[in-house]
Amino acid sequence: MARGRIPNSTLAQTVSVAESTAHNRVHALIDSGVIRGVHADVDLAAVGRPLEALIQIQIQPSARAQLRTKAERLAHCPGVIEVYFLAGSRDLLVRVAMADSAGLRDFVLNELNQHAAVASTETSTVLEHFRGVHPLIAPT
Description:
Elements: H1 8-14, H2 19-31, E1 51-59, H3 67-75, E2 80-85, E3 92-98, H4 101-112, E4 118-125
Antiparallel strand pairs: 1-3, 1-4, 2-3
Domain HTH asnC-type: 1-50
Organism: Brooklawnia propionicigenes
Keywords: DNA-binding, Transcription, Transcription regulation
């Protein structure tokens, strides 16, 4: 069972509190916005998108005002998993999952490089992906 779906009774036992306390604390974290949701961990290959890539995008200086609009538009494109604003030499990082290299090529050429606002792109394919295993702990 995924950690996001742990029964309240198991959570309470794990952290040595009453079930009602665990329930109240989880709902307080949700209500305060600390926990924004519990999400499925999808096997991308199982849904026909085994090729994962990270695409760094540099936007033309004259198009900086369009950065948020560009990011929001990209977030709605098929195959896009996440879009990040970056500090540094690149402006955006787009994480995509595609069916094959032809789909990735078409996305980069047609959705990115055809737009005048895009100065350059750099694509890296993901060979393997590891998630952090340690829970986030509030700084003391």
